[in-house]
Specification:
heterodimer; A: Ubiquitin-like (UB roll); 3-stranded antiparallel beta sheet; 2 helices; B: mainly alpha; two-stranded antiparallel ribbon
Chain lengths: 94, 325
Amino acid sequence: MNNEWPLWEIFIRGQHGMSHRHVGSLHAPDAKMAIKNARDVYTRRNEGVSIWVVEANNISASSPSDKGPLYEPSESKVYRHPTFFDIPEEVGAM
Amino acid sequence: MYAQMVKSEASNEDPEKLAEFQARIDADIKIEPKDWMPQAYRKTLIRQIGQHAHSEIVGQLPEGNWITRAPTLERKAILLAKVQDEAGHGLYLYCAAETLGVSRDELTEMLLDGRMKYSSIFNYPTLNWADIGAVGWLVDGAAIMNQVPLQRTSFGPYSRAMIRICKEESFHQRQGYDAIRKMAEGTPEQRKMAQDAMNRFWYPSLMMFGPSDKDSVHSAQSMAWKIKINTNDELRQKFVDQTVPQAEYLGLTIPDPDLKWNEERGHYDFSEPDWSEFFDVIKGNGPCNVDRLAARNKAWDDGKWVRDGLLAHARKKQSGNLAAE
């Protein structure tokens, strides 16, 4: 049996009001130890106020080859951006 | 450097894919783990990042040697924090290497049985407290020279690890300079110790950059891939130029009678280290090679029951959870 500790992906909330961000990964036997280890590995200089850990094999990811079908449709919809529309100057800020 | 003399592999893959890959690198688009990459790029990077990670881990040993004997409680706390950082740096790098498809245990085993190397510098002993100052100032100073440009390396996870590391590394060099400055400005005896440490660490620090690689095919390939940014000679020159005024400030003499400012080049001329010593250390014959590997092997073997026990506990708890559902 493979006796390597599983890999965990670590997400840290850098400061109050921010979302958690992926900072890296580490090995740990379970979630509790992953949080303890993440504290030592990724927050030695006040980098965080909250830690999430997710076992790496529970993460599903899009594949680089899907890039076209996934993101091209949004490229043609320029009207989704406010700058697409000209608003007359007289109307003022909108 | 922390990764010395990394051999690159030859590529024999679809030329079209290779060209596309090179174009991405030339356009400074990062390569991520799931992207296609040449086998040779992958293998070379595993070797390079692995060697870099091993250096961080083994690098804890010469400094750890002085934690219990630091001259003050404050110096002890600082050294502890520094050595802990090195462990962290090793972990960031191991994780970056693992994204290329090698497991942590494989990397560890290759270090322990000598198939993978770590930097030659950590095979030198730290004989007294002045050496701890010299290591932080000179060894970490040399490491920073190499690591700063590597933040721009083409492989995403490696680049991100280097960015984290560089943020922390400057503390390492400054605490070293601060420690050796205390001694250089101290009693005549302390001053002598500082000079002696400088004498012993100067050439091994220059060796960290590796022998000249301006004609090396491995270097040319690695530079095309942007996993090496500068030649060894460029970095060594930069290190010398930066360090000489720092030594002058301390009133310490660089142990090189031929060291002098070259007005024309705008750089210091200096003597090459003894490269036969370097190759000897790399081969395993440095003063501490045997001790370093023995210490790592002992730590791995002695820690086995902890690793296994915690894993068994986690598995048992997990199966308990399943049964209760």
